[in-house]
């Protein structure tokens, strides 16, 4: 049996497929003739889940208005889904290994479809919150089966194509969510408004259930496994203690208990690791197969994946804030502006897995990281040069380059991480990959509070200070106030702008903005244009800071890629003589 990469004598060795008894048997079995039809069902389901996570953010203001929901309730509509999704991914993956991946996939699709219906029919905020939490949980059962079924169904040669298509679907869902969400809400089809974003899942889910039950072949671990209940409790508890404060930190004002919870999560997760080692020795049925981390492609790939998605988590949230609040663009315009990113990701999502990475290995991904940095750098220049006057056309080249880099780096990662995973652990590995990605997004989202909002009030104050001299003149000339009154109004305007920028909910009107000097209609008409310009300029400055941090994160990703084996060994390719070994 050929040795795996972690056993090789040199850190520069290429990846040799780890062959287990299950994998060897799988290689001799005739390929499933319905595998490509099954892939279609899997990709549509993955698209539905990824789109739902993005599209709900766009529709949140409409939900809040129609249901008369508080800001905290709407936050739970979004955060509840993310939290439930992240917490059930590892469990969902292992359930697929134990009870059958097809079975758990169909259960996940059925639950996701049902909860989409209840979300679309919700009449009270609490009904929508419960539906979204359950929807996230069923999604956590459904999603891990996608990668694991791809892993065990396709041959090595075909797996690259399947993963490329999966990566393409992910990129499309992430970007099209903005545009489709805006269209659905603004067009208000059938008078359904935001409800349509959930109800549209129902017919798609039903078709997926009917078609998937016919074309997906059942698979599970070859030997009987047991569900590790204590491991499940420890993993869930540790992740809740870590992820919940990250998701809710800014809204709660980063309380002390949040930091204590994140610190306390470390011993809980270490206890989980210790229990998994004991469980593996005891009956060979741990929730997570820790032996996977001894495989270089798995551990190094997860490290790159985590750091990369921390950067992407920052970027996607900051980008949405910059376009929709800073520039005041509608969801539809913001979505259409993102199309160059989508096109760039589309061009490299398939070629990176099918051509570039197989031929050039990790170097292709490192070139992608460089292209990503070029796109981020050009975006920094555009945001600084045009400020509040930026247009969608100004962003075409930066977003296209960022899309090219994203597709080249992100798409091959699931294939690299799972390249040496035995078939029996495909579900567990898939759950870990998805949990790793969600954790990266959660950390990135938390960093937005520091990187983006941390400097927003200061940037707003600096921008207003530059406006003050001209504002005084315009107030005297247009609003008919005295120079002394103009001075008072300008000071009140600055206080209002800075206080508004410091609010957790950016739609909240601070008390300082209701003072008498700002209520005169003539004064308000003069201030409106200045306020719009100040908002655009300050958000641009904060987004520039975030982009610089993302460049630093990408540099770390570039360096971590040296830990990834040089390239994936292709099926049937002979290993160099120095790297071949046999096991008695």
Automatic annotation (TrEMBL):
Entry-linked InterPro entries: MFS, MFS_dom, MFS_trans_sf
Record-annotated Major facilitator superfamily (MFS) profile domain positions: 38-569
Domain of life the protein comes from: Bacteria
Chief localisation class: membrane
Cell inner membrane is among the record's keywords: no
PROSITE patterns: MFS (PS50850)
Keywords associated with the record: Antibiotic resistance, Membrane, Transmembrane, Transmembrane helix
Compartment(s) of residence: Cell membrane
Membrane-spanning segments: 36-60, 72-92, 104-122, 134-154, 161-180, 192-212, 224-244, 256-275, 302-322, 334-357, 364-383, 395-418, 439-457, 545-564
Membrane topology: Multi-pass membrane protein
PANTHER family per UniProt: ACTINORHODIN TRANSPORTER-RELATED (PTHR42718:SF39), MAJOR FACILITATOR SUPERFAMILY MULTIDRUG TRANSPORTER MFSC (PTHR42718)
Descriptive protein name: Major facilitator superfamily (MFS) profile domain-containing protein
């Amino acid at each position: 049996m050929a040795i795996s990469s972690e056993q090789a004598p040199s850190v520069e060795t290429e990846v040799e497929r780890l062959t287990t008894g299950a994998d060897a048997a799988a290689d001799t079995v005739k390929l499933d003739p319905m595998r490509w039809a099954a892939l279609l069902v899997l990709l549509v389901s993955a698209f539905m889940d990824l789109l739902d996570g993005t599209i709900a953010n766009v529709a949140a203001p409409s939900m809040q208005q129609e249901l008369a929901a508080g800001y905290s309730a709407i936050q739970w509509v979004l955060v509840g889904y993310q939290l439930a999704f992240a917490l059930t991914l590892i469990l969902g993956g292992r359930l697929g290994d134990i009870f059958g991946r097809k079975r758990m996939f169909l259960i996940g699709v059925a639950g996701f479809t049902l909860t989409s219906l209840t979300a679309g029919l919700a009449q009270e905020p609490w009904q929508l919150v419960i539906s979204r939490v359950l929807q996230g949980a069923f999604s956590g059962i459904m999603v891990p089966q996608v990668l694991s079924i791809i892993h065990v169904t396709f041959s090595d040669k075909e797996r690259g194509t399947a993963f490329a298509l999966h990566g393409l679907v992910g990129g499309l869902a992430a970007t099209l969510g903005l545009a489709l969400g805006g269209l659905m809400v603004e067009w208000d089809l059938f008078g359904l408004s935001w409800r349509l974003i959930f109800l549209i899942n129902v017919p798609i889910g039903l078709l997926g259930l009917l078609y998937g039950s016919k074309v997906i072949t059942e698979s599970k671990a070859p030997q009987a496994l047991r569900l590790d209940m204590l491991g499940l409790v420890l993993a869930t508890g540790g992740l809740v203690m870590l992820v919940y404060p990250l998701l809710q930190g800014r809204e709660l004002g980063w309380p002390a208990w949040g930091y204590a919870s994140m610190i306390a999560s470390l011993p809980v997760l270490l206890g989980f690791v210790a229990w998994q080692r004991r469980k593996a020795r005891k009956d060979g049925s741990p929730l997570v197969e820790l032996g996977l981390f001894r495989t270089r492609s798995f551990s190094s790939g997860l490290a790159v994946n985590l750091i990369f998605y921390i950067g992407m988590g920052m970027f996607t949230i900051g980008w949405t804030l910059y376009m929709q609040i800073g520039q005041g663009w509608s969801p539809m315009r913001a979505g259409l502006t993102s199309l160059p990113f989508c096109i760039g990701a589309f061009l490299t999502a398939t070629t990176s897995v099918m051509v570039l990475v197989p031929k050039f290995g990790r170097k292709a991904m490192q070139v992608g990281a460089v292209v990503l940095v070029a796109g981020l750098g050009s975006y920094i220049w555009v945001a600084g040069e045009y400020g509040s006057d930026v247009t969608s056309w100004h962003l075409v080249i930066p977003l296209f380059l960022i899309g090219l880099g994203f597709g080249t780096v992100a798409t091959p990662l699931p294939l690299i991480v799972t390249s040496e995973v035995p078939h029996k652990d495909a579900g567990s590995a898939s759950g870990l990959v998805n949990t790793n990605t969600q954790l990266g997004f959660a950390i990135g989202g938390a960093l937005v509070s520091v990187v983006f909002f941390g400097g927003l009030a200061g940037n707003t104050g600096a921008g207003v200070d530059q406006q003050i001299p001209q504002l005084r003149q315009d107030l005297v000339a247009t609003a008919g106030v005295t120079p002394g009154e103009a001075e008072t109004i300008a000071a009140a305007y600055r206080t209002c702008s800075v206080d508004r920028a410091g609010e957790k909910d950016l739609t909240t009107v601070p008390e300082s903005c209701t003072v008498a000097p700002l209520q005169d209609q003539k004064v308000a008409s003069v201030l409106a244009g200045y306020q719009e310009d100040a908002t655009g300029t300050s958000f641009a400055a904060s987004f520039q800071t975030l982009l610089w941090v993302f460049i630093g994160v990408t540099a770390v990703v570039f360096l971590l890629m040296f830990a990834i084996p040089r390239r994936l060994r292709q099926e049937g390719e002979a290993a160099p003589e120095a790297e071949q070994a046999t096991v008695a």
